[in-house]
């Protein structure tokens, strides 16, 4: 508990179903010290609509039903809300390359 200054997740949260994602973020929140930083780089809401074509092969392969439940919230731009629900304050949000999100958050001091 409260042992780490920083944590980082790179292209991992979109693999998790919503309930597991919430539990994982709660665990990161638990192990960070007050004021600790958390960075997430993952798929996000497309800031350039044509970049959504990146997912066309997935759609054509019929992977939508099992995969969409996990990645869908990311593509709808919901990751910052997941972080806030886990007790983080989102301090920065960038959308590089039109399809990814870099979210910076911190555990609010208690």
From TrEMBL:
Gene3D superfamilies of this UniProt entry? Vaccinia Virus protein VP39
What are the Methyltransferase type domain coordinates in residue numbering?
A: 1-38
According to the UniProt entry, its GO molecular function terms are:
S-adenosylmethionine-dependent methyltransferase activity
Coiled-coil parts of chain:
none
Q: Which SUPFAM superfamilies match?
A: S-adenosyl-L-methionine-dependent methyltransferases
Q: Name one Pfam family in it.
A: Methyltransf_11
From the Swiss-Prot or TrEMBL record, give the protein name: Methyltransferase type 11 domain-containing protein
Q: Which organism is it from?
A: marine sediment metagenome
């Amino acid at each position: 508990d409260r042992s780490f200054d920083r944590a980082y997740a790179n292209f991992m949260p979109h693999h998790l179903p919503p309930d597991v994602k919430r539990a994982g973020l709660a665990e990161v929140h638990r192990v960070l010290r007050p004021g600790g930083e958390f960075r997430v780089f993952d798929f996000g809401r497309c800031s350039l609509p044509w970049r959504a074509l990146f997912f066309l092969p997935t759609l054509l392969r019929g992977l939508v039903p099992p995969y969409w439940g996990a990645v869908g919230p990311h593509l709808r731009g919901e990751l910052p809300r997941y972080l806030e629900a886990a007790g983080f304050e989102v301090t920065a949000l960038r959308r590089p390359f039109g399809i990814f999100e870099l979210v910076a958050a911190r555990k609010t001091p208690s």
